[in-house]
Amino acid sequence: MKLKLLSMMLIAATLLAGCQENFKKIQDQANQQFGDQHFKTTISLIEMYKLRHGYYPSALDSLEFTGDWDQLAIKSVEYKKLDEGYELNVTNGWIGKPDSLKLQYPDTFWKGLGIKRSNLMRK
Questions:
Q1: Which parts of the chain fold into alpha helices (H)?
Q2: Which distant-in-sequence residues (6+ apart) come within 8 Å of 88 by Cβ?
Q3: 20-50 tens-digit pLDDT
Q4: Whole-angstrom distance, CA of residue 57 vs CA of residue 86
Q5: Cβ(28)–Cβ(99) under 8 Å?
Q6: 56, 81 in Cβ contact below 8 A?
Q7: Which residues lie closer than 8 Å to 71 by C-beta, 6 or more apart?
Q8: Prediction pTM value
Q9: CA dist list (Å): 46 to 13, 42, 70, 113
Q10: 73: which of 21, 33, 34, 80 is 20 to 30 A away, CA to CA?
Q11: What are the distances in angstroms from CA 99 to CA 16, 81, 116?
């Protein structure tokens, strides 16, 4: 009886460990996807502001015509206006910080943008 109980506990522990590992993978993937989306959404809003006003906003709270989902993106990045262009860093994904080494964009992505510095990388 004790051996059977011990075996069941061992099986349960193994299954739980597997579930935790799967959840970690899902969480990491979601952090990457949401971090990517937050970054791109905020860039779009910043660049639209520049198109309309001729200069980049002093802060993200200056952005106009944002939707509810845009607020999630704006609150998941750090923005700093520079003398020429801006710096934009991703600070949050889904429920944690994305791995900035995994979020990489080709040179063509950066072309024409005012973003001069970022914690995300070029390929």
A1: 2-53, 68-74, 107-110
A2: 39, 42, 43, 46, 77, 78, 79, 80, 115, 117, 118
A3: 777 778 888 888 898 999 999 999 999 999 9
A4: 9
A5: yes
A6: yes
A7: none
A8: 0.80
A9: 49, 6, 11, 10
A10: 21
A11: 25, 24, 20
Tokens of 72: 């999630």
pLDDT at res. 100:
74
Euclidean distance between CA atoms 72 and 64, whole angstroms: 15
For the chain, the domains span 31-122
Compute φ and ψ for 105, nearest 5 degrees: -130, 145
Mean pLDDT score of the chain: 86
Tokens 């309309």 appear where?
Answer: 52
Which two tokens mark 4? 């059977």
Residue 88 scores a pLDDT above 90? yes
pLDDT of 89:
95
